[in-house]
Amino acid sequence: MEDDTVHQLKRRATLLGMRRLFPVTDETVARPGGATAGAGPAVPPGDREWTPEELAAAYAYPETGTGGREPWLRANMVSTLDGAAQHDGRSQPISNAADMRIFGTLRGLADVVVVGAQTVRQEGYRPAREREAFAALRKAAGQGPAPAIAVVSASLELDFSEPLFSSPLVPTLVLTGAAAAPDRVAAAERAGARVVIAGDGMGVDPVRAVRALADLGMSRLLTEGGPRLLGQLVASGVLDELCLTVSPMLTAGDAQRIAGGPSVAVPRRFTLVSLLEEEGFLFGRYCRDQPR
Ligand SMILES: NC(=O)c1ccc[n+]([C@@H]2O[C@H](COP(=O)([O-])OP(=O)(O)OC[C@H]3O[C@@H](n4cnc5c(N)ncnc54)[C@H](OP(=O)(O)O)[C@@H]3O)[C@@H](O)[C@H]2O)c1
């Protein structure tokens, strides 16, 4: 039989909306009804869904560099308790509504979404949509109506007749190496994609990719993986931030972790800068300890 206290705690957790668990200060302790203790910026109450504006404030890109904007690359990934980055080949079964709201918020703030070709093929990627909730914010930040999607691919074995390439709101980018097959490059360009060379061989060099996007005026970078791409971004030292959703699920099996490929020589240390919670899902923001 279930213990009463556990039952009550579980019931309370499902009734609450989003809560900020970290950082916790006098200013961040939300009181019932939405009032916050002490002075300082208002913190959304923990008993309702946060508005898009509140989420956008919680995930604002840092002002980097002096004068112009230095690129800032954040990743957004979801993992189960046992480290699975997908179930049945997709991330949707391990996500929830709050995770999707944060996913949408991170897109709403980004100039470009960098994604590996396998995730595009497997998840059936479509162009990013214009979202009313972020329209004013994007305009004020000098951004277009939606982020561009930048697909990283060596083979360019992509279906260029898909809406992602043929009818996006802003042209889709294809990041590839100088040795990419010319007929596939031509097919991408015919479909309307902008091909960006960011490597000398078949593949893309992550450092060059970040620089190439910054040179195109895109400094608020978001990557949505997948694990094989993210592993390279980690190994090459270009990842500034990880937005990690920990899903309260166990899947066992042999799913990929959120980052794959060869391991780095020394584990990269990140610092927790914020932790939100809704329905038992944890939403962490971790930033790199060392500058690039
Ligand atoms: N949990 C999460 O948050 C999350 C997020 C995203 C995806 N996923 C899941 O992850 C799975 C797919 O991920 P994945 O790791 O297999 O694949 P991926 O990282 O999405 O894509 C790998 C592909 O990207 C291209 N690529 C990667 N690095 C490259 C480089 N340096 N230069 C040129 N091209 C490069 C290659 O494409 P070509 O083969 O075209 O050359 C490669 O086959 C799916 O099951 C998806 O659901 C989970």
From TrEMBL:
This is Pyrimidine reductase family protein. Pfam families: RibD_C. InterPro entries: DHFR-like_dom_sf (IPR024072), RibDG_C (IPR002734), Riboflavin_Biosynth_HTPR (IPR050765). Transmembrane segments: none annotated. It comes from Streptomyces lannensis. PANTHER family: 2,5-DIAMINO-6-RIBOSYLAMINO-4(3H)-PYRIMIDINONE 5'-PHOSPHATE REDUCTASE (PTHR38011:SF7), DIHYDROFOLATE REDUCTASE FAMILY PROTEIN (AFU_ORTHOLOGUE AFUA_8G06820) (PTHR38011). Keywords: NADP, Oxidoreductase. It comes from the Bacteria. Residues 71-273 form the Bacterial bifunctional deaminase-reductase C-terminal domain. SUPFAM superfamilies: Dihydrofolate reductase-like. Pathway: Cofactor biosynthesis; riboflavin biosynthesis.
